Amino acid sequence: MTVALLQAMQERFDVQIDGSEFGSVASPIDGHEMDYKRWLKRYAPHAASAPLAKHHIRAWEWAESIEAKNPPPALIECWFRGGGKSTTMELISSRIAVKATRRFLLYVCSTQDAANRHVADIANTMEKCGIQRAINKYGYSKGWNAEKLRTANGFNILAFGLDTGARGVKLDNLRPDMIILDDIDELDDSVNRVEKKVQTITQTILPAKSTDCAIVFVQNRIHANSVMSRVLSGELDMLQNRIQSPIVPAIENLEYQPVEKEDGRTGYKITSGTANWEHKSIEVCQREIDDFGIIAFLRECQHEVGVGGRFFGDFKEYGPDGDPWHVVDAVELQPWWRYWASHDFGTGSPAAFILYASDEKENIYAIGEFYEAGHVSSKQADNALLLLEKFKLGEANDRRFKEGKWNTKLEAIAFDWANTFPPENPAQRIGEYPVEIWWKKGLPCVRAVKDRKAGWRRVKEWLIATRVDGDKIKPKLRIVRDACPNLIRELNNTMADPRDPEDIDGGTRSDHAIDSFRYGLMWREYPVKCPETTDMQTWKPLWADDGYGRKDYL
Q1: How many CB atoms are located within 10 Å of the residue 298 CB?
Q2: Is residue 369 a contact partner of residue 486, using CB atoms and an 8 Å limit?
Q3: Which of 7-16, 408-417, 427-436 has the lowest mean pLDDT?
Q4: Can you tell me the distance from the alpha carbon of 98 to that of 30, in angstroms, rounded to the nearest whole number?
Q5: 137 with 84: CB under 8 angstroms?
Q6: Could you tell me the residue ranges of all domains in the chain?
Q7: In the sheet where 327-328 sits, what is the strand order?
Q8: Number of Cβ within a 10 Å radius of residue 43
């Protein structure tokens, strides 16, 4: 630790960082000889008033198994809101102080204020348990406040908020030998904020732990990009040596249905399920649904984080039967279909050009993309032309079918016009504008619809649109897998803005393909006319399909 940080820690926490105040171990006190259930009945009767659920017992047994100088596997517990997670962690903190199996507990929350509240609650419990404060030779407490607790038997607790930005955690000569991660995630966390939390945990907190540190992470999922969600999915590689317990919802096998009330309002009634804790019964859950709504209940208590989590929750690569759904390996393109494109302009950030086809049944196919950063407008246009040439589309190819009733002309390119189109007032023109380079190359660029929320609504409408094909239901929107990998990736990964579910998270790192996609879907205006059956026999597919749809004419 640097001298400046040592001084800051001493000023903030009123401690000496020289290791002179305490011995090497903490000392057990009265009550340590009891099992935890008897201890709870004596010292925390309010917590023992309702029978412990399976998830509480699992956490307590893990805590009771902690031994001095022996690092246990980290405990990962995902409990529903109102499942007693903070109360359990606060009581376990006091119990660890009584047993003295650990010396220095770091209580970590999203904010310093939240961490302070938990430590204040722990202080109240410790006082009820008869745990004495550490006193200096002048009779003053060495530390008993909202941020720090120091006990007479040598146990210490420090509150740490991820918003404080501290670069290390030590108390005297001690490193934390127990860490509780509680209330880490918040509903309004942006993508960038989640990344910052992960960095603080993995680069500041965990490297500061002792070699025998016991770690527990308890949290409900809240949203699909939360730290807990990413730990559970394995996306984050921290805490690999762990006990990952089953996710605990408030109600197992929950079923509910809409109910129309007498005044015409619609509510929701639980019809079946089993509560996971007596204290949060079906009746209690029903009241919560009535009070704060079904969506909030599903997210907070059932971990259904798709509600306000993934922005394109209806996008599915595979259907319920395992067959391809929105993503397919090949499409048999026809010459009479409509073809158009969209383009999200970018130089430092990626430019995203997407090519579409639409058949006589009004199905839409995304059949190709160009997605690269670092290109000026002329280079972006050249790459678009290369893609079009692979599909034999464009003005230059119209003559190939001039004697037919239909041609393969590219109808339009819905083009991002922010800072790319010339102003309507000629007097305001300054030099050549990016789109004019595309026009000179024969590319039919038109202004895209820039209304973001209208565009996202159109995309979502197409994601749920279906058609009947024989005895099966199939989507009307398909994306060729190898042809549009960046579009597929962004549809899978984009998160909703927690403050505005109608828009994507402002911290989204990659949204260029989906921006282009909404331009393209907003452009589609009418279905193509299918040729007569006798005429169709004289037409062949434009090219053989190799999974990218880009071989020579047949």
Answers
A1: 21
A2: yes
A3: 7-16
A4: 7
A5: no
A6: 3-244, 251-302, 327-536
A7: 327-328, 477-480, 364-372, 351-358, 338-344, 413-415, 445-447
A8: 21
3-state secondary structure 213-276: CEEEEECCCCCCCCHHHHHHHCCCCCCCCEEECCCECCEEEEEEEEEECCCCCEEEEEEEEEEC
Q: How far is CA 360 from CA 338, 357, 427, 522, 546, in A?
A: 9, 10, 45, 18, 23
Q: What contacts 47, CB < 8 A, 6 or more positions away? A: 40, 84, 87, 88, 91
Check residue 547 and give left, alpha or beta (phi > 0: left; psi -120 to 50: alpha): left
- pLDDT higher at 494 or 459: 459
Residue among 345, 366, 543, 338 at smallest CA distance from 462: 366
Instruction: State the fold for domain 3-244.
Output: Rossmann fold (3.40.50)
Q: How far apart are CA 12 and CA 14, in angstroms?
A: 6
CA separation, residue 215 to residues 173, 239, 241 (Å): 20, 9, 10
Answer yes or no: pTM beyond 0.85. no
Contact 459, 475 (CB under 8 A): no
Class of CATH domain 327-536: alpha beta
Q: What is the pLDDT of residues 481-498, one digit of tens each?
A: 999 999 999 998 887 876
β-pair partners for 321: none
Q: Are 549 and 399 in contact (CB under 8 A)?
A: no
List CB contacts of 460: < 8 A, sequence separation 6 or more: 312, 314
Residue 53 DSSP symbol: P
Contact 196, 155 (CB under 8 A): no
Whether 550 has a pLDDT exceeding 50, the answer reads no
